[in-house]
């Protein structure tokens, strides 16, 4: 099963948070994997996208999903000059880790920049580690960024703003289980408590 790239974007005041009726219908009827129940977010256990990436972390190491096995991985696409959505997403991740207590230590966060022209390794490192020293910033070439976004059904676009630009982008947090399987998409408008409730189910999968 393959889903189309979501055709919407976020701006400073307008979020693409996923969870549209079309997405829900596209996911209906898939029953190959163990089901997560009573979720606040979207169950992606049986989709066939987001299977891997090949990017570079802020320390210069090449990374794939396999590097994060053993942890429950939260993946968010954004950019460091984002005025509100991206810092909110990363701050919420720190709240979720705290809410989960000891289990929160099993969570890893990967922030994939959609603005590699400005988000250099040093910029990425300063940004993500300001939220949590364990967070990882990931980047690629323009071509790698485009491929990764396509593979994850993520929309992004450069929007001119005077002499500079901002970025519109999908605002979902993807959650992988400890075996590296995509399980959830969490919407930006969910609370930290709702995130934690869903992630507990993923943690329970082992």
How is the topology of this model organized?
Blueprint: H1 21-27, E1 42-43, E2 55-57, E3 62-63, E4 72-78, H2 85-99, E5 107-113, H3 121-131, E6 136-139, H4 142-151, E7 156-161, E8 164-169, E9 172-176, E10 182-187, H5 192-204
Parallel strand pairs: 4-5, 5-6
Antiparallel strand pairs: 1-10, 2-3, 2-6, 4-9, 7-8, 9-10
Helix pairs in contact: 2-5
Could you describe the 3D structure shown?
It is a single chain. With 206 residues, the protein is of the alpha+beta class. The protein has a single domain, classed as Glutaredoxin, CATH 3.40.30. It contains 5 helices and 10 strands. The strands form 2 sheets. The protein has an 8-stranded mixed β-sheet with strand order 1-10-9-4-5-6-2-3, with helices on both faces. A two-stranded antiparallel sheet has the order 7-8. Helix 2 packs across helix 5. It is globular and about 45 Å long. The two termini are 26 Å apart.
């Amino acid at each position: 099963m393959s889903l189309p790239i979501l055709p919407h974007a976020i701006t400073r005041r307008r979020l693409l948070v996923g969870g549209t009726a079309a997405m829900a219908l596209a996911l209906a009827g898939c029953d190959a994997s163990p089901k997560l129940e009573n979720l606040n977010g979207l169950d992606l256990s049986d989709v066939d996208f987001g299977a891997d990436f090949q990017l570079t972390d802020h320390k210069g190491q090449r990374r794939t999903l396999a590097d994060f096995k053993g942890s429950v991985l939260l993946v968010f696409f954004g950019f460091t000059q984002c005025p509100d959505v991206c810092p909110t997403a990363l701050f919420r991740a720190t709240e979720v880790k705290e809410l989960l207590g000891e289990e929160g230590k099993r969570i890893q966060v990967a922030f994939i920049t959609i603005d590699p022209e400005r988000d250099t390794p040093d910029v990425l490192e300063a940004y993500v580690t300001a939220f949590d020293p364990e967070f990882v910033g990931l980047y690629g070439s323009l071509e790698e960024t485009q491929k990764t976004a396509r593979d994850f059904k993520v929309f992004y676009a450069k929007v001119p703003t005077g002499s500079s630009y901002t970025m519109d982008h999908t605002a979902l947090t993807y959650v992988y289980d400890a075996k590296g399987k995509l399980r959830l998409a969490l919407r930006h408008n969910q609370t930290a408590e709702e995130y934690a409730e869903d992630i507990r189910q993923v943690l329970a999968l082992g």
